[in-house]
């Protein structure tokens, strides 16, 4: 989640414009699928890895962020060993890992505010066509990132309340109060957005 | 501040949340107290246009809360009972900038004003922090900063010391007292309204006392039966 993955820093990649980073990510994801040669994909993987590990993260933090995805890629690779030739499996692993490393580098160096501003700008052409309201999409994205931790905290509180009262924890008895409490808060949050002048201009 | 309510009432379905009321408020520091469900918050929301009057009219510094609702929201900032709900963006500085971006200000000015307001509230060190990780006192200060940054002339604070420990309560109370903006404080914390210029007491949707803090608080104890 972008909320928790941004890392303070002054590296050149931190300073790079968000749009350039997003375009580079898009271009890389297309380019990596244009070849199936491990010899070409290996340098890309090493470059992305070098970039990611130069951002000021400790090794532990760096691996923690991508560990689960890498594990999934390795499981996928093992399954594919039985289906396709080894060089193709190697290409698959290098391609996906390179992409994950580059995406993780973009995430670690882009604040949510900058990301939202860029989303708003990128959606402007669609807004001119009357398809979306760019600021609404950007706000929705921000709200999701902002309130996911709150909803998770509320979920934990309801679980603890169940335990404290000796009530067995069942998904159905938790989801009900969670939805009701979240909707109740949504009213206040909507009022707050209004009070903060969204669309006032 | 210049707030005028003329024969104003609020009804939610069958329930009369606020009985017809005519009132003028001109002091710089105003407090509102009352038991739970007495109509305090409804009254406060009425003032900045978040709640529309069922009958009558409300004017804030000459602006009608129904006809000029957007202008009223800019004139009277509102700090909610649970400030966590008020912080909309995930990162503190992004949240402070939110209200300014909505006004279409240039990026440079947004950045300068954000830094200035964080410094004014003594929370510059929180600029890059995630809002869900802030303590109660920090959340309240950031919520105030996020509203003040847009330059409202009046600040309405709904139970600003709710759920704060003694130290944070003191810190928030001192900050409110030092504000340049006119304030209306709705609270159960009687210490917070001891020095206001005018204190209103609501009970069952009616304004039942309006005067100095000493008299009004004494009457409140009688009403509450304790």
Q: Could you walk me through the main structural features you see in this protein, from its secondary elements to its overall organization?
A:
The model of chain A has no long low-confidence stretch (mean pLDDT 87). Chain A contains 9 helices and no strands. The longest helix of chain A is centred in the last third of the chain and has 31 residues, at 134-164. Chain A is mostly helical and 201 residues long. Chain A is globular. Chain A has helices spanning 2-5, 12-15, 18-32, 38-53, 59-81, 86-108, 112-128, 134-164, 171-195. In chain A, helix 7 (112-128) packs across helix 8 and helix 8 packs across helix 9 (171-195). Chain A has 2 domains: 2-110, no CATH class; 115-195, no CATH class. The two termini of chain A are 31 Å apart. The mean pLDDT of chain B is 91. Chain B is globular. Chain B has a domain at 3-83 and 151-224: 3-Layer(aba) Sandwich (Rossmann fold). In chain B, strands 6-7-8-3-9-10 form a 6-stranded mixed beta sheet, sandwiched between helices. A 4-stranded antiparallel beta sheet of chain B has the order 2-1-4-5, with helices on one face. Chain B is built from 8 helices and 10 strands. Chain B has 226 residues and is α/β, with parallel strands linked by helices. Classes of the chains: A mainly alpha (201), B alpha/beta (226). The interface between A and B is medium-sized, with 31 and 33 residues.
Compact description:
Chain A is mainly α and 201 residues long. Chain A has nine helices and no strands. Chain B has eight helices and ten strands.
Name the descriptors.
heterodimer, A: 201 residues, mainly alpha, 9 helices, 79% helix, 0% strand, B: 226 residues, alpha/beta, Rossmann fold, 6-stranded mixed β-sheet, 8 helices, 10 strands, 35% helix, globular
């Amino acid at each position: 989640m972008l909320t928790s993955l941004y890392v303070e820093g002054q590296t050149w990649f931190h300073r790079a414009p968000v749009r350039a980073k997003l375009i580079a990510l898009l271009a890389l994801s297309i380019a990596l699928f244009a070849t199936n040669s491990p010899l070409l994909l290996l340098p890309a993987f090493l470059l992305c890895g070098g970039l990611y590990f130069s951002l000021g993260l400790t090794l532990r933090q760096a691996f923690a962020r991508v560990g689960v995805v890498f594990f999934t890629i390795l499981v996928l690779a093992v399954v594919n060993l039985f289906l396709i030739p080894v060089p193709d499996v190697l290409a698959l692993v290098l391609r996906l890992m390179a992409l994950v490393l580059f995406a993780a580098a973009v995430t670690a160096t882009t604040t949510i505010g900058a990301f939202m501003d860029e989303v708003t700008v990128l959606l402007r052409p669609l807004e001119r066509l009357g398809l979306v309201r760019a600021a609404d999409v950007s706000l929705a994205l921000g709200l999701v990132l902002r309130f996911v931790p709150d909803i998770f905290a509320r979920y934990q509180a309801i679980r603890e309340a169940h335990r404290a009262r000796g009530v067995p924890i069942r998904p159905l008895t938790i989801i009900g109060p969670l939805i009701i409490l979240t909707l109740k808060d949504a009213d206040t949050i909507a009022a707050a957005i209004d009070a903060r002048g969204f669309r006032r201009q | 501040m210049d707030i005028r309510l003329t024969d104003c009432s609020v009804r939610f379905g069958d329930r009369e949340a606020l009985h017809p009321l005519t009132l003028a408020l001109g002091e710089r520091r105003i407090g509102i107290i009352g038991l739970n469900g007495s109509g305090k918050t409804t009254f406060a929301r009425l003032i900045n246009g978040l709640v529309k009057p069922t009958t009558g009219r409300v004017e804030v510094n000459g602006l009608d809360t129904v006809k000029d609702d957007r202008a009223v929201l800019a004139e009277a900032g509102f700090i909610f009972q649970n400030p966590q709900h008020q912080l909309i963006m995930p990162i503190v500085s992004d949240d402070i900038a939110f209200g300014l971006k909505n006004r279409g200000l240039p990026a440079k000015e947004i950045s300068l004003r954000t830094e200035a307001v964080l410094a004014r509230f003594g929370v510059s060190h929180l600029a890059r922090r995630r809002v869900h990780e802030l303590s109660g006192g920090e959340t309240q200060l950031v919520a105030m900063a996020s509203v003040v940054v847009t330059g409202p002339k009046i600040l309405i604070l709904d139970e600003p010391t709710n759920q704060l420990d003694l130290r944070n309560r003191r810190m928030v109370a001192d900050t409110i007292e030092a504000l340049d903006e006119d304030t209306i404080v709705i609270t159960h914390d009687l210490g917070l309204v001891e020095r206001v210029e005018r204190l209103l007491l609501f009970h069952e949707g009616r304004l039942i006392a309006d005067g100095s803090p000493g008299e009004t608080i004494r009457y409140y104890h009688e009403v509450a039966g304790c």
